[in-house]
Amino acid sequence: MATGPQPSAVPALFPAHAGVSLDATARWLAPTVLSGGLQHRTFRLSRRGAALIRSWVRGARPTGRAQRALARALTDAGLAHPRPGPGRGPNPAEVTVVIPVRDRPQELTRCLRALRGHPCIVVDDGSRDPAATRRAAAAAGAVVLEHPRCLGPAAARNTGLRRATTAFVAFLDSDCVPHGDWLARTLPHFADPRVGAVAPRVVPLESRGSHLAAYEAVRSPLDMGRREGLVRPGTSLSYVPSAALLVRRAAVRSGFNERLMVGEDVDLVWTMIEQGWRIRYEPAGRVAHDHRTRVVPWLRRRFAYGTSAAPLAQRHPANLCGLAMPAPTMALWLAVGAGAWPWAAAAALLGPARSAVRGILAYRRAGPRRPDDGVTLCLRASASATLGAAVHTGHAVSRPWLPAAVAAALCSRRARRLLATSLAVSAASAWWSGRHADRWRPAFFPLLLADHAAYSAGVWWSCVRHRTWRPLLPRFR
What we know:
Blueprint: E1 19-22, E2 27-30, E3 33-36, E4 41-44, H1 47-57, H2 64-76, E5 80-83, E6 95-101, H3 105-114, E7 120-125, H4 130-140, E8 143-147, H5 153-163, E9 168-172, E10 176-178, H6 182-186, E11 195-204, H7 211-219, E12 229-230, E13 244-248, H8 264-274, E14 278-289, H9 295-306, H10 309-315, E15 323-325, H11 327-338, H12 341-363, H13 373-398, H14 402-409, H15 413-433, H16 444-466, E16 474-476
Parallel strand pairs: 6-7, 6-9, 7-8, 11-14, 15-16
Antiparallel strand pairs: 1-5, 2-3, 3-4, 9-13, 10-14, 11-13, 12-14
């Protein structure tokens, strides 16, 4: 699927008049060594380059080709984020909102009420009562396009995309209610001509009430969290949902893949990234979403999300696998879970030893503050990576690999230990990620297990249906 012109024809330099701020993960390992970002990249800088970055953090802006090239490298590595100047980016009048809908006239009315004043295109994807959709759209002055039968959300969005004439299009689901400043927060990122899409944060419309509503408030797959960043497969921001997504129309002329009934948004984002477009996530812009709060529809939706795994793995084999991490780290946590302590000890010593050697060879030449700084910092990074690998391994065993893990646990005591450890790690990680929400309840852990089981069932079903095990296979790096 082609998504329009290649961004190679667009200027590669960091946009003029934009500021720069460092990511929360960025750390100065030495006066001229900056580390952090999406995949823990390390930049060794000249003294002038390091001084420039510090001046940008204090409020200065990159000027000249060399400075703007450095700012682009930092933002592409996730070490920094752009801060567009005031008044930069397109005007909200240049945005057309496309809303696909099917049988939800009340939710559509609520959504259109929040969008009053914006040009909207409502695409009725085969509703049983199309007259109700027409009435809701007419009351808000929106254009209505109709499909005689249900063709899927991808086809509905493409129909609206083809009708739009503005330079930018905002895709918004009918069960969403945007906050008043969502466009003002997200549109400035389009001042960068290489940004093809920007996603606001999707927050719960209502987080009180049932246990499931409270669970969705902190564990919804539509909510990508509090931290802004560049979307990149294999990172904590590996995708953004199309429930609320702003796109540059020239970058997505062919739209979504209509053969995908689920996961079409992930496919679009990954295709744009492969072609060189930047996709940014901006949590300062917010859109409220009416989460599912009934158990059966919720489980059915989680299962449907899982069924996208095989088609996505076939279309983007480098972006989706069961688990990706260094082989020694994976061996360490699998050995710990299985109770193979001698092997676990050997694997545990290998990572820090490699990190110590790296610290001696790399950071002493870069001028650490003290002779042991390079080794200390590398050992800290190794410990952090090992802890992160434990979370990823537990997540893999308790989510995509869950059916195989349960089957093995019925036959093996070590497999039972591995499964119990993985479930505990996954639950602890889920609790930690939602610790500031003040909504955690004892029912969250059974719901977490049901969430994993439904998603895993969908993954395995898609693997059998598409005759591929690629989404389940680990990748050593």
